[in-house]
Amino acid sequence: MGRWDHARIAGVSLGALALCLTPVNHVHASVSAQVALTPLYKEYADTNEVPWALLAAIDRYAELTKSKTDHEAAPYYGYNFQPGTWSGVANPNLDDVNPASIHMFAGFGEDADGDLLALPWDEADRIAALAKWLSCETELDDDDEVAVWNLFRDPVAMERIFAFEKIFETFGMNATSHCFPIAKQYNFTVKHTFGAGRSWGGRRVHEGVDIFASYGTPVLACSYGFVEMEGWNRFGGWRIGIRDTSNLYYYYAHLSSFSKGLHQGDLVVPGQVIGYVGSTGYGPPGTAGKFPPHLHFGIYKDTGLHEWAFSPSGLLNQWVRQKQKIIQTPVKSTKEDED
Ligand SMILES: [Zn+2]
Known about the structure:
The structure is a single chain. By secondary structure, the protein is α+β, with helices and mostly antiparallel strands. The chain has two domains: 5-171; 188-319, Glucose Permease (Domain IIA). It contains eleven helices and ten strands. Strands 1, 2, 3, 4, 5, 6, 7, 8, 9 and 10 form a ten-stranded antiparallel beta sheet that branches. Helix 9 (144-152) packs across helix 10 (155-171). The structure holds zinc ion (ZN). Keywords: Hydrolase, Signal. Its EC number is 3.4.24.-.
């Protein structure tokens, strides 16, 4: 058994366990299995001169948005090549695992671990092939973005993958801690009203919980992530949307103001002040005071095809018991934006 078989087996058993857990736990299970692959991303990124965090980000996004059918067809972690890309398009054997004939047909399948087989389900072979493919693509266009576009052909995938890359690059793959979204030294009351009816804005249900607190109480980022949305919405007032590398979207609404210097695209860490409790919303920009001040907090899960809200109560109950470290300074990404 090679040293990487360990990681693969861990992934498989976590996958089986996830069947009896909620979707969130499933995400966390596969995410923790991916951390074990970090040395492989780094090794094959180095040999192919591509960014390791981009390889990890492609794998993460592919895993989180994989359909049930794709999962059954290829029950292993991350990005899976089409058979023709692995074996070579003209190769009569689309399931070819012989490195010599794969290379003859210009396939991308690799034997990275030296077992004389190029196996799409072997983590080393698969990640080495992905790195080689990325290196070839970026050589053609001198552009990461075109390469990633060719893998997913989806603008949402592009946005998420490059954001994941920035987060992995800046914080590593082990940055998974969380924080309760209100500074706990202030008074607050959580109303667990997920799914209740709403009176304003037509027929809709309450897609979150309300945490009542005084005007100006600091609102904190509850995960590592990036600011996907910041601005006005007639329901949410001044609101912020933060996405993490599990493709969960945290929605913070009715703020009185945003933290100074925080902008769309910025990275955040758990405990970082992102804004302050207010009562904005239910009208045109600037409307406030139509209800008592509170933070509306929602979590949405995105699987690529569907996005839905789930009750954040379980997570909030867990986070409220944890120690808080409040961070005032905005985080600087180590990867510079090229635009
Ligand atoms: Zn609410």
